[in-house]
Amino acid sequence: MIDVREQKTDRSQMYEIAYEPNLIPPLELMRQEGVVVLEDWFRWAEEWSMILRIYGGLTMNSSVLEIGCGLGRIAFPLRYILVNGTYEGFEISYDKVAFLEQTFHKAHPNFRFIWANVNNTYYNPAGQLPAADYRFPYPRNSFNLVYAASVFTHMLPDATANYFHQAARVLKPGGRCVFSFFLLDYYRQGRPRPSVFGRPSFDFDHQYGNYGTDFATVVPENPEQMTAYRLDMIKRLAADAGLELAQAPVPGLWSGSFDHWVCAQDLIVLQKPGLLANS
Ligand SMILES: C[S@@+](CC[C@H](N)C(=O)[O-])C[C@H]1O[C@@H](n2cnc3c(N)ncnc32)[C@H](O)[C@@H]1O
After folding, report:
1. Cα(263)–Cα(248) distance, integer angstroms
2. What is the position in ligand 1's atom list of the atom closest to the CA of 68?
3. Which residues contact residue 50 at a Cβ distance below 8 angstroms, ignoring those fewer than 6 apart?
4. Ligand 1 within 6 A of 266 CB?
5. Phi first, then psi: what are they for 67, rounded to 5°?
6. 11 Cα–ligand 1 center, Å
7. In a mutational test of the pocket of ligand 1, which residue from 151, 160, 164 has the highest number of ligand atoms less than 8 Å from its CB?
8. For 8-37, what is the mean pLDDT?
9. Tens of pLDDT, residues 129-149
10. Would 272 disulfide with which of 25, 51, 171, 279, CB 3.0-4.6 Å?
11. Residue whose C-alpha is closest to residue 103's, from 170, 11, 179
12. To 10 degrees, the CA torsion angle through 227, 232, 235, 239?
């Protein structure tokens, strides 16, 4: 097990990992993402590549947008898959995009990364643009698949509403969104939760703003540190944006409410009405 918290774990250890180890981010950046064990980093990444194939219709020809691409964790396995496809990712943390530009994009020019100086109380408190007003920098009808892994779990509802509209605009007709959330429908105060999710940093016990019981945060003074939504609100935001729920939510591990689960977080699969020409 490779513990990335240990200062003695240096990059020379990374170079023993086969296949483009220089695409693995600097450990100090990885630690900022709360990563403790390197193998967990890869597990999340490979899991999402499976999720995108099963729920998002990802193929070798897909045109893909990742919202909040972080350090390229999920782009990493997608480079095996998107042989004839394209990948665009945007992210609000400058250092992460700088790393991806210098490494990933150079090695894989069909993977492009953009920095968006969008405000987030936790990830980019000095950001200039409100997320509720940010226009995704891509033309309409550009993508087969738009996904966000653990990003709406750090966003307020007005921002999520805008991102749903933006996703609908840039998706091709028939294209899909795969978004992870913490669904309040599965949360019970005091119920034991598995693994790290048992920590107080996942206690969604605070209502926020005028959203009533549809939305909760863990830390009201830093609301985007961790957020959770009720499914009804997600359905309303999706319908307002012209997106349909393609299927029932796919429950995650985090809440401790399900014996069978797919991802750590709950998955919402949305579709833009219409028929996809080719994917
Ligand atoms: C938990 S990390 C997940 C990163 C990446 N999706 C992954 O799976 O490795 C959450 C990411 O969302 C980004 N983020 C937060 N708010 C955002 C926003 N409004 N727009 C785009 N990215 C955002 C953060 O900067 C952070 O990199």
Report:
1. 15
2. 22
3. none
4. no
5. -85, 125
6. 24
7. 151
8. 80
9. 999 999 999 999 999 999 999
10. 171
11. 11
12. -120
